[in-house]
Amino acid sequence: METAAEENTEQSQERKGCFECCIKCLGGVPYASLVATILCFSGVALFCGCGHVALAGTVAILEQHFSTNTSDHALLSEVIQLMQYVIYGIASFFFLYGIILLAEGFYTTSAVKELHGEFKTTACGRCISGMFVFLTYVLGVAWLGVFGFSAVPVFMFYNIWSTCEVIKSPQTNGTAGVEQICVDIRQYGIIPWNAFPGRICGSALENICNTNEFYMSYHLFIVACAGAGATVIALIHFLMILSSNWAYLKDASKMQAYQDIKAKEEQELQDIQSRSKEQLNSYT
């Protein structure tokens, strides 16, 4: 009976130790950085994936309907191809950068939680945290521009779609005025003014709106714009987290310096007291 009781006690202690270990591990997870990383990955994935496919669909629409001469949209095709390569680079960079920021969140959380233990922050660690704050700020400003730029094709496709809806409306359907409703893509500056035909009217424009390329490109550009907005929110979230962690590390370094000075003074006081006792004993 005593042996069974001892075994139950050991098992309960092991379970308690495992539970405490799990709680300690979960307490060291930077949940804010984890949420920001997931949001950043999701936003960048939506922007890059949907943007890449939408750009390819846009080129197909231009070549088939608005610019039949290849030389008229050759520059635009090169720019779109370059943007697709840039999208590859953006996806790779932010995948790596998100992992680095998540690792920095783990480091900072451990530094703050284990301030009173053997773990100590260093000047290099605080400098790296400050560098991430600056870099994330710059990337946030840049992605604000990307978000605004991604709204331009949404605006263009919306204008084309709304014109098609006007053509389909009962007020204009079946009348001669339908052929007077046109969309001139040259006014947006993406193809030159001498591009042929450049302008589509009436039923031909309605047929364009009914194609899969137009439908998919329009909605993919909307999703890509939403992904860019999500990335901006994630970078702002990261910026708040990094600023807060940097402030914590700065306070932690001051606390560590204070504790080191205090421990040194206490040690010197003990040494003085021990020498005084030795001298007193020698006199007596």
From TrEMBL:
It is found in: Membrane. One of its GO terms (biological process) is negative regulation of serotonin uptake. The keyword Transmembrane applies. It holds the Pfam family Myelin_PLP. It is a multi-pass membrane protein. The chain crosses the membrane at residues 34-62, 82-107, 128-152, 220-242. GO terms for cellular component: membrane raft; myelin sheath; plasma membrane. Keywords: Coiled coil, Membrane, Transmembrane, Transmembrane helix. Residues 255-282 form a coiled coil. One of its GO terms (molecular function) is structural constituent of myelin sheath. Belongs to the myelin proteolipid protein family. This is Neuronal membrane glycoprotein M6-b isoform X2. The lineage of its organism: Eukaryota, Metazoa, Chordata, Craniata, Vertebrata. The gene is GPM6B.
